[in-house]
Specification:
The chain has about 240 residues and is of the alpha+beta class. It has a single domain, classed as Sandwich (Jelly Rolls). A 7-stranded antiparallel β-sheet has the order 1-12-9-14-4-3-2. Strands 5-13-10-11 form a 4-stranded antiparallel β-sheet, with no helix packed on it. Strand 7 and strand 8 form a beta hairpin. The model has no long low-confidence stretch (mean pLDDT about 90).
Length: about 240
């Protein structure tokens, strides 16, 4: 059972995010990391530079990792906080190395990943990266999505923890330069290894450069219970 489930549900609704600690044991975290290290990095969905290692379509690209990640504890969180019919529709693994100078500016997550590009009303603009199509869907679909960020390292402000502006998920699609940090101060979301941060995609968020020399490895997964119109299909469902 998840402790204080109503507190987490309320935080998600009003603040746009919540953090749950100790969802994965150290042994489970190490099992995930071992599967990542054994994966075939020659696949096109793998991206590796001095500042970032990323795997798109993560749950499909790393054999066996889905069974390791979807423990009874995580499935309970999904069913309790999201709904029984929510399934993963997008997944990415990020490794921000300890010496990385990579950062992410304030933004909302405004696109979904689909298998092919089709002309469907209300969907656009489109982009494509590493043969992966992304498109901005109607607002109602973005409001339906939940994101789980599984942390495989202790993460704090010194190694690039996510920063958020609470409540901004309730404002629809907004330009980052219209947000006042004086009126709504940012919050740095520290999460220990084995913990998860759950957030809404429309929550304004960013991350800073790492200054501690410690890695920040995160599995980012998005969930929905919607079918897409006009022949569009989720890339990872």
């Amino acid at each position: 059972m998840i402790k204080d489930i109503e507190v987490h549900r309320q935080q998600l609704a009003t603040q746009g995010y919540t953090v749950l600690e100790d969802i994965f044991s150290e042994e489970e975290v190490q099992a995930i990391l071992q599967q990542i290290s054994a994966a075939d990095t020659s696949q096109t969905v793998f991206r590796k530079t001095a500042d970032l290692f990323a795997i798109r379509q993560f749950l499909q690209s790393v054999p066996g990792v889905r069974n390791t990640i979807f423990t009874p504890a995580l499935q309970s969180i999904i069913h309790t906080l999201f709904g029984e019919d929510y399934v993963p529709v997008k997944s990415i693994y990020f490794d921000k190395p300890g010496q990385s100078n990579w950062f992410v500016a304030w933004h909302q997550d405004l696109t979904i990943s689909v298998r092919e590009r089709l002309p469907v009303e209300g969907f656009g603009p489109w982009t494509v990266k590493q043969n992966q199509y992304a498109v901005q869907p109607p607002l109602s679909l973005l409001e339906n999505i939940y994101t789980i960020r599984l942390h495989l390292d202790d993460t704090d402000a010194q190694n690039g923890a996510l920063k958020v502006i609470p409540g901004t998920h309730l404002q629809g699609i907004v330009r980052p330069d219209t947000i006042s940090l004086q009126e709504t101060p940012e919050v740095s979301c520290s999460v220990k290894s084995g913990g998860v941060m759950i957030m809404r995609p429309l929550l304004m968020h960013a991350s800073s450069r790492s200054t501690s020399g410690s890695n920040r490895r995160v599995v980012h997964m998005e969930f929905s219970n919607r079918s897409l119109p006009g022949g569009l299909t989720w890339s990872e469902q």
